[in-house]
Amino acid sequence: MKHHDVIIIGAGAAGLMCAASAGYRGRDVLVLDNAKQAGRKILISGGGRCNFTNQKVEPNNFLCGNSHFVKSALARYRSSDFIELVERHGIEYHERDHGQLFCNDSAKEIVTMLMTECEWAGAKVQLRTEISKIVKLDSGLFELTTDKDSLTCDSLVIATGGLSMPKLGASPFGYNLAKQFGLKILPTYAGLVPFTWHAEQKLKFEPLSGIAVPSTITAKDGTQFSEALLFTHRGLSGPAILQISNFWQPGETISINLLPGVDARAAIELELANHPKQSLRNTLSHWLPKRLVEALFDENLLNKAMNQLVHSELEQLAVELESWEILMNGTEGYRTAEVTLGGVDTDELSSKTMEAKNVSGLYFIGEVMDVSGWLGGFNFQWAWSSGVAAGLAV
Ligand code: FDA
Is CATH 3.40.640.10 what the domain over 2-190+335-391 is classified as, yes or no? Predict the structure, then answer.
C-alpha cells in the first residue's frame, strides 16, 4: 500500500493547479485521472485558444447558492496572479471584448504550463487510472482502490468537474463521492448552453442558421447581457444566449432587443418622416438582415409603405424590435454545455480551504461544487483560485 500526503482526483484545470500549489509546499502529491490526457477541457476551450481568465473578476460574475462563498479564494488568488504565471512561462496572449484573455497560439500552452508547474513542484500525474472504492479509515487516512493498486493519503481532493460534455470524460464521480460522505448536492443543470427550437419555430427560423446580430437579452429575473445572438439549425446560440442560459428556467420566455442602444420608436418616426414611401421591408433591412426581417414580420405588413402603417402597427413594430418575447423549447443539455450549474453545496465546505466541514481531509475544488461563472474566463479563474485555496491547505 503506497502512501501520499495528498491525492487529487481529476487532472483538469483545478486539479493540476492544486497539485502544483501543494507540491511547492513540499507535500507529496499524486494526481489521478481516468482519461488518457490531462486537461482535455482546457485543450478545446475558447475555440482552441483557451479564455484562461478575465481582466476584471468580481464575485458577482459567479452563480452560487451562497454569493459570499467565492470571495475569499478569488481574493487570495486573483486573475493577475494567473496572468503573471502565464507571462512567466512566456505564453503570449491577447484581450478580447469584456476583458477576456486568450492565448495567441494554442490552449495546449496552458496545459503544458500546468504540467510543467506540477513537474517543478514534484507533483506526479497518473492517467488512465480507474478508482473503484474510497473509504476513510479509523486512522483518519483515506484508502483508495484503483485498477492499478491501493493507495492511502492524508488529504483527498476531488477535482472531477461537472457533467458537461460527457464525451470529454465528464462523470458524476464527484457528486457520488460527496453523497457517500454525507455532503448535500444541489440539483445540477446544463449552463452556458444553446437553446433549442420548438418544432414550429424550427420550420420558421432554421433557414436563418448562421445569421448573427448584436442583441441585448433579458431573462425573467431581469438579468441582462448585451452580446451577439446567433441563429443555428437547432435554435439560438452565441455569447448572449450562453450567458442568459445560466439565468433561465424551463418554461420562461426570454426578451430579445434586436436594436440594442437604439430607441426603436424614435428611429421608426425618423424613417417615416424622411422616407414615407419606403416599404417597411426596406426600412427594417437597414437595421437587420433581410432574412431575419422576413421571418419575424408578416409579408403584407412588410410590403406596406411607411406612411400606410397605422399608429398601432408602428407601436407594435417598436415593441417587437425592442423586446421580442420568445419561449424556447429547452437547451442542448450537457452534450454541449460549457458548465454545470449546481453541485456540491458550498455550505458544506470551508470558503477558505475548500475542505468539507464535517469530513476532515476531504476537499472539493473547481466545477464539481455549486459555483459557476459567466462566460468570459470566469470558470477557469474559479478552477485556479479554488485549486490554490485547497493547495495551500492540504
Ligand atoms: P475539468 O472538467 O477541467 O477536469 C475534471 C477532470 O476530472 C478531467 O480531467 C476528467 O477526466 C477527470 N475525471 C472525471 N471523472 C473522473 C473519474 N471518474 N475518475 C478519474 N478522473 C475523472 N471556461 C473558461 O473559463 N474559459 C473558456 O474558454 C472555456 N471554454 C470551454 C469550452 C468548452 C467546450 C467547455 C466544455 C468548457 C469550457 N469552459 C471554459 C469551462 C471550463 O472548461 C471548466 O469550468 C473547467 O475545466 C472546470 O475545471 P475542473 O478542473 O473543475 O474540471
Answer: no
